[in-house]
Design a protein that fits this description.
By secondary structure, the chain is mainly alpha-helical. The protein has helices at about 10-55, 65-70, 70-105, 110-120, 125-135, 140-150, 165-185, 190-200, 205-215, 215-230, 235-240, 250-260, 265-285, 290-295. The protein contains 14 helices and no strands.
Length: about 300
C-alpha cells in the first residue's frame, strides 16, 4: 500500500521553499552591495585621491597644509567663508521659517501652490539666477533705478561686488533648502496642542514659543545644517556677485587649479574644506543629535 507524502515533505519542495524564503534577503544584499560600490567608486575613491595628492610633492609632505595654516591670507579666506556661510544660514532661517509656517498652516490646495512657488527656482539654472541678481543689483539695475526715481538716494548704491551681493544671491538660491525641512516637520505638528495651550490661558504668541517652536527645532536644525554645509563650498555666486574682499575658499581652490595649476595645494585646501564640513556635522551631532535633526516625527 503506497504511503502518501505530506505536503512540503519532498526534498524538492523544501528546496523550493528555502529559495523563495531566501530571495528577499539576497535581493536586499545585492542592492546594498551595489549602493556601496556606487558610493565607493564615485565618492570614496575621488576623496582618497584628493587626500593622497595633497601630501604628495612627489614624496610625502605636509608642506601645503602648513602653508595654508600659517599664511594669513588663507586663514582670512577660511574665516570669511565661515562668516558668509553663517550669515546666509541666519538670513535663510529668518526668511524661511515664516514661509514654512505659512505653507504648513494654509489649506491643502493653497499650500500646494505655495510649495510649488518655493520649488520653482530649482527649475532655473543657478548660473542664470546669479546673473539675474547682477541685473537687479547693478548700478543701473532695477533696485538703484527705483531708489533714484523715488528720490531716496542721489547716486546709485554699491549693491554687488561686496558681501551684501554675495549674501543676497546665496540666500535666494539656498532658501528652499531651509523651507523644505521646516515644512516637513511643521506639517506633522498637531495643532490641537496649540488649542490646548490657549485653553489653559496662554496667549497665541506664548503658545507658539512654548509649544510650536520647540517641536519645530528638528526642522530648524536640518535646514541650518543643509544651508551651512552647502554655503561652505559655494563658488559661482560669490565669483559673480562678490568683490576682491569676498573671496571664499572654493574660489581659492579654483584659482589654484585653473590659473596656478597647483593641484597639490588645491587638494590640501579641498581637504581642509572637507574637514571643516565634518567638524560642523560633529558639532551639530553633539548639540542636537543627527538622529533628532533628520527625524520628521513629532
Amino acid at each position: 500500500m503506497a504511503v502518501l507524502a505530506r505536503p512540503g515533505s519532498l526534498p524538492s519542495q523544501r528546496l523550493a521553499a528555502a529559495i523563495v524564503a531566501a530571495r528577499p534577503r539576497s535581493w536586499r544584499l545585492a542592492l546594498l552591495g551595489l549602493s556601496v560600490l556606487f558610493l565607493g567608486v564615485l565618492f570614496a575613491l575621488p576623496v582618497a585621491r584628493v587626500i593622497l595628492m595633497s601630501v604628495d610633492a612627489p614624496h610625502f609632505t605636509l608642506k601645503y597644509y602648513v602653508d595654508f595654516l600659517t599664511v594669513p591670507v588663507y586663514s582670512q579666506v577660511l574665516y570669511l567663508t565661515f562668516r558668509i556661510a553663517a550669515i546666509v544660514t541666519v538670513v535663510c532661517l529668518l526668511l524661511g521659517y515664516p514661509v514654512a509656517y505659512l505653507i504648513a498652516s494654509a489649506r491643502p490646495s493653497v499650500g500646494r501652490i505655495l510649495l510649488v512657488l518655493v520649488l520653482l527656482p530649482f527649475w532655473v539654472s543657478l548660473l542664470v539666477r546669479s546673473y539675474a541678481w547682477m541685473v537687479i543689483l547693478g548700478r543701473a539695475g532695477i533696485v538703484n533705478q527705483l531708489l533714484l526715481g523715488l528720490g531716496v538716494v542721489q547716486e546709485p548704491l554699491q549693491l554687488m561686488f561686496n558681501t551684501l551681493g554675495v549674501v543676497v544671491g546665496m540666500t535666494h538660491i539656498l532658501l528652499p533648502f531651509m523651507v523644505l525641512p521646516l515644512y516637513s516637520v511643521m506639517r506633522g505638528i498637531d495643532r490641537r496642542l496649540l488649542q490646548a495651550a490657549s485653553n489653559l490661558g496662554a496667549s497665541p504668541w506664548r503658545a507658539f514659543w512654548t509649544v510650536f517652536f520647540p517641536l519645530s527645532l528638528p526642522g530648524v536644525g536640518a535646514g541650518c545644517l543643509l544651508v551651512f554645509i552647502q554655503s561652505l563650498g559655494f563658488f559661482i555666486t560669490p565669483a559673480l556677485l562678490g568683490g576682491s574682499g569676498d573671496v571664499m575658499i572654493a574660489q581659492l581652490i579654483e584659482n589654484q587649479v585653473r590659473q596656478l595649476v597647483n593641484w597639490q595645494f588645491a587638494s590640501a585646501q579641498a581637504v581642509v574644506l572637507l574637514v571643516a564640513a565634518v567638524v560642523v556635522l560633529a558639532v551639530f551631532n553633539r548639540v542636537l543629535g543627527l538622529e533628532r535633526i533628520w527625524s520628521t516625527r513629532v
